[in-house]
Amino acid sequence: MKFVAILQRQQKPVDYMLKKLLIIFSFLSAGISAKAQLMESFLHSGEIGIGVGMGHYFGDLNPEIRFNRPKTSFGLFYRKQINNYISVRLSGEYALLGYSDRYSNNDVQRARNLSFNSNVWEVGISGDFNFFRFQPGFEEFSFTPYIGLGIGAFSYDPYAYLGGQKYFLRLLGTEGQGSSLYLDRQYYNPVAISIPFTLGAKYALNARTNVFAELIYRFTNTDFLDDVSGQTYAPDAFAPLPDGSPSPAFLLQDRSYETGASIGMKGRQRGNSLKADAFATIKVGISFNLHNYRCPTY
Fold it and tell me: Which of the 8 DSSP states describes residue 82?
């Protein structure tokens, strides 16, 4: 009997501890369940954002893909969230692009001495994929890197300065476009297609606001973003002005005379048509989350 009494006294603290653990476990389970229900009822449906940064061109004047002359870029977007990982983005972008042969390490390019600037306006649609689950408002799901791939259309109109005056190059036909002597050379389209590839990361500051940084590289279907392609020089396509002086088109199609002897003789290659031009933007920005709520089912 004494042994049984001792066992009963030892059992009481054990029962008390088990009850205490059960109560704690019940509270934890309730908390986890409540949080899970909250996460299920809270839907991150999308974002509206704006970013600013730099744009850069790659092409006949920058064949080495050097990122040494960035210019202004900014953009707006609306992102529709399909689930926690996949979204569709509609975007509008602006980039000022430009380059000059004088920045090249190649002696032939520096002698060619061509340059351009262009205002590029782009609209596009892309699919984005988050590497991590992203739910603003929940700290453990507040950060993710992401990638994206899409298609867009952009307008461009390269220009250059001569004697302090601005000239748009496309309609000047600097490679003989529009000349009766070169009927196979047509004016290039000022609208082209882009294939944007995105690498980015975003962080939710709170349930309403995110910050992000992203790089978007665009492959394009044009080789005239810089007004230079693979066609040969065509100096005979440019008639002199009525007073006998050379026309602006003639002076802009070959500017090697500014650095030395002219290299723009008929039949000599002016650019490289084997590879289309490209451009990229690097931006940082802020976005504002759009929320939906759904009633939990029991």
Answer: S
45-293 CATH fold: Porin (2.40.160)
The domain locations on the chain are 45-293
* Sign of the dihedral defined by the CA atoms of residues 249, 225, 76, 139, in that order: negative
269-298 pLDDT per residue, tens? 999 888 999 999 999 999 999 976 555 555
pLDDT tens-digit readout, 100-115? 999 999 999 999 999 9
Paired tokens of 261 = 């002897």
Q: Residue ranges of the chain with pLDDT lower than 50?
A: 4, 6-7, 27-39
Our measurement of the distance from residue 87's CA atom to the centroid of its chain's CA atoms, rounded to an integer in Å, reads 16
Question: What is the rounded distance in angstroms from the CA atom of residue 173 to the CA atom of residue 70?
Answer: 27
What contacts 24+ positions apart, CB below 8 Å, involve 162-170?
162/248, 162/251, 162/252, 165/248, 167/248, 167/252, 169/116, 169/227, 169/252, 170/224, 170/227
Q: Are the C-beta atoms of 218 and 195 separated by less than 8 Å?
A: yes
- Residue 240's nearest CA partner among 254, 251, 255, 253 is 251
